[in-house]
């Protein structure tokens, strides 16, 4: 498995982006440095609530323990409070950095962005680029149902893109898919509508993105629940269309090269039927390369258009 995309993969990805036929998926890894890493939150909770198991850095398991020993809403209230505090530290000027991950994505001409994160950094980045993002969430439980629906005639555009929060938003605590029970209930809610219309849970525009665009997954780890649940949901959609998708997986830390190689082979098998090209690369490095190649593509197309216009003008004046 390569750590970087081949030129032909880049060419296809850039064409899909230009046509608005690419949908980014944002995982927890894209927020490193802005929102506390989930393992850090889990470790703190494990200490505060005297978590007895060894996997004290597993947020889902620790959150489940807190939900059982305290109450269901406690871990959601605490993580929403933490996110709200950290978001106050993110000034608008943060997105002035042309290589900031959310900024790079916001500069692309895309109509739909999907995130499994609870924060609104993608929306903030889009606003900083003079776009008007519309936020929607997956209505998997009674709390998420309280979120105001977008107009039925709304069509996502490059100027007015849709940002869809699959696992809820910090603005509605009960909408979060956080604990082990939440993930099971979430899957059950999706499965119950498998043979019926899913629009009450997954808007039609999101289902169309699943089937009619190339998906770009950023900031996920192979062992994370949010990763596995996400692909369990997407599997049936991806099998319906023969499009290339890309997953930039976060490189596992503190493991031997031999175990990394075994994990890579597992990933190849895991994605073998879904036409997903998998690469292990730092997300920030990936989007820097994306920025560079996208800028070069736009410049080349502009120069070509100017050359063709000049040739046409010269021909007209010559005749």
UniProtKB/TrEMBL annotation:
Matching SUPFAM superfamilies: DHS-like NAD/FAD-binding domain (SSF52467)
Stored Pfam families: SIR2_2 (PF13289)
Domain of life the protein comes from: Archaea
Protein known as: Uncharacterized protein
Phylogenetic placement of the source organism: Archaea, Methanobacteriati, Methanobacteriota, Stenosarchaea group, Methanomicrobia
